[in-house]
């Protein structure tokens, strides 16, 4: 019967500290405190764990000193908690190469089972030139059966295996014969095993590896082509970049076959991640792909929307723009204004999107912005001045506009309906800014903030901001007051405001369809 042993994962390293030791594993680390004796206990315990110990033998002898028992228990508990131990049978006669065994023992929950899955898989490499060579070499280095140009081979001296019944189609069909074809010009690569597929692309200066998909149907060539176009993948792959991309593609596939976490798992808390590599200087980083259901947190979606490599919107930057009194950012030519840096980035990113309607970061934001635009030209009764002049926030931004920047402005505030007020700020020649909010104070504050942002940035035209956008959670703790951090409470009145605007004569808004990328970001649009 094969013995089952508990082993220290080979990747684990330990360092003594002044009061104990520090352990580092595959994806986590921990520091143990308890005196210098911990390191001495570790030096005795580690060789036994490296060789392998039956679980029953992990018990500390009852006659050991209490301090030793406590130290061993502490170390073992932390090793288990941080996945630095693996319980596995001994390798059989069909063991992988030593370096592959070390990798599986370091990363796999069940190393022997992971190797069994790899042994029965056939990797199909579809590509040309250095990309194909790199992928084949990477797969063979693991000891996998590799199929290319109709030939199946296996490295490490094993006999060739027949492809599985559901093995991927031949390279030529994947690249040229399918309606979902990936067009190859020496820059495209598809590696597959059964239903698992990884697509990649590589040019002279930049390359990418997409996440693993689980069927040919889900191999979205539109995403592949869009990614290549956005990154500017052109020219023939350079040897060094092709080696990186081909190896990384096989790495993702091998992890999926073996049941190991995807290499990008620690980064992919919201969206699937694509590896993007550059040749000069040589670098590789993971970036979010706007695919699948939107992120629960719209602010995480904003990060993907404006990602420096793959985002469809230029990353908002602060540049040389002054950041007092308003926060300012630009996305391309679009200006963003807010009371915080995040609010300015969001405003800039949404202003950079060109559509027939109004775009918001969520349903309420988009609908609220569209309703405000529909109500902009409605007239109402003049509101009492005290409804906003006594408000410190409205006063602050009005003073910033007229006193700090010296803009000769006047404000007109109207009550459009119960719970709906419009503020327009003008200079006698044009409207500088406008806002529609649930209170007169909010309407003046948003209009004055928008006009202040334009004056601060040296922009002309009519500015607009509104309170329909959600506040970032970290910006809105329970103890926040209006005087401390407006607009913390404005969103709370949004639903009632929208109901009031929708009852105005002639006001009607309808949802618009957005392209899949923007929908995956959770964005909504209304007209």
Question: Topology of this structure?
Answer:
Blueprint: E1 4-8, E2 13-17, E3 20-24, E4 29-33, H1 37-51, H2 66-81, E5 85-89, H3 98-107, H4 111-119, E6 122-127, H5 129-142, E7 145-148, E8 151-154, H6 171-177, E9 188-193, E10 196-202, E11 206-209, H7 221-231, H8 239-258, E12 273-279, E13 282-288, H9 298-305, E14 327-331, E15 334-338, H10 341-352, E16 358-360, H11 363-375, E17 381-382, H12 386-389, H13 392-404, E18 410-417, E19 420-426, E20 431-437, H14 440-457, E21 463-464, H15 482-485, H16 494-502, E22 511-512, H17 516-520, E23 524-526
Parallel strand pairs: 6-7, 20-21
Antiparallel strand pairs: 1-5, 2-3, 3-4, 6-9, 7-8, 9-10, 10-11, 11-12, 12-13, 14-15, 16-23, 17-18, 18-19, 19-20, 22-23
What does this structure look like?
By secondary structure, the chain is of the alpha+beta class. It contains 17 helices and 23 strands. It has helices at 37-51, 66-81, 98-107, 111-119, 129-142, 171-177, 221-231, 239-258, 298-305, 341-352, 363-375, 386-389, 392-404, 440-457, 482-485, 494-502, 516-520; strands at residues 4-8, 13-17, 20-24, 29-33, 85-89, 122-127, 145-148, 151-154, 188-193, 196-202, 206-209, 273-279, 282-288, 327-331, 334-338, 358-360, 381-382, 410-417, 420-426, 431-437, 463-464, 511-512, 524-526. The strands form six sheets. Strands 8-7-6-9-10-11-12-13 form an eight-stranded mixed sheet, with helices on both faces. A five-stranded mixed sheet has the order 17-18-19-20-21. The longest helix is centred in the middle third of the chain and has 20 residues, at 239-258. The chain is elongated and about 90 Å long. The termini are far apart.
